[in-house]
Design goal:
The protein is mainly beta. The protein contains no helices and eleven strands. The termini are far apart.
């Protein structure tokens, strides 16, 4: 089972990036999917999450109104559209897939927002 994240990079404040995470080795249509981020020296925190049916989403207060999570169960992917980026959004972003019994992490992709 592998989660491959992509789309990170360097962007100026106010800009946009779209992160994508492709899952392989298992069908994740019944899994909750999410994006987390971690700054060096700090704990990993949830940014956004989406239920298996995409009916429910969750966003951290710090990204509400700026980030949008979406999933495509046919393609086994989960995306994070990030708009109006701020320097404090700089972090390594990880995708996550979890069920009652399993919890999988991607390798992380670095997002750097310059002021």
């Amino acid at each position: 089972v592998q989660l491959q994240a992509s789309g990170g990079g360097l962007v100026q404040a106010g800009g946009s990036l779209r992160l994508s995470c492709a899952a392989s080795g298992r069908t994740f249509s019944s899994y909750g999917l999410g994006w987390f981020r971690q700054v060096r020296g700090a704990e990993r925190e949830v940014v956004a999450a989406i239920s298996w049916s995409a009916e429910r989403t969750y966003y951290a207060d710090s990204v509400k109104g700026r980030f949008t999570i979406s999933r495509d169960n046919a393609k086994n992917t989960v995306d994070l559209q990030m708009n109006s980026l701020k320097p404090q959004d700089t972090a390594v972003y990880y995708c996550n897939a979890r069920s009652v019994s399993y919890n999988y992490w991607g390798q992380g992709t670095l997002v750097t927002v310059s002021s």
